[in-house]
Amino acid sequence: MISEHFDIRTRINMKLALDRVCRNRPDGADHRFRKSVAENIIRCALNGRTGIGQLVDAGERAMIRTRGERTPA
Asked: Out of the domains of life, which is the source (predicted)?
């Protein structure tokens, strides 16, 4: 569980990062999209990068990767 690995400040930053990346996106409410973004944010935090900017960047990288996977070749 996430609460076992992270302190309250980090968990708040992670939630804020997820919300910032997903808000105002056409697919921002899509479960698969949010899951992909959240997983990247979690990986970032597990590597010790817990600042809000670092977490948002990680989420945005996931967003770009996820969008690329959906684009037909």
From this structure: Bacteria
Distance separating alpha carbons of residues 24 and 4, to the nearest angstrom: 31
Alpha carbon distances (Å) from 9 to 16, 33, 46, 47, 68: 11, 24, 14, 16, 32
pTM of structure: 0.83
pLDDT in tens, the chain (73 residues): 677 889 999 999 999 999 999 998 888 788 888 999 999 999 999 999 999 999 999 999 987 776 656 545 4
On the 0-12 / 13-18 / 19+ scale of CB atoms within 10 A, 54 is middle
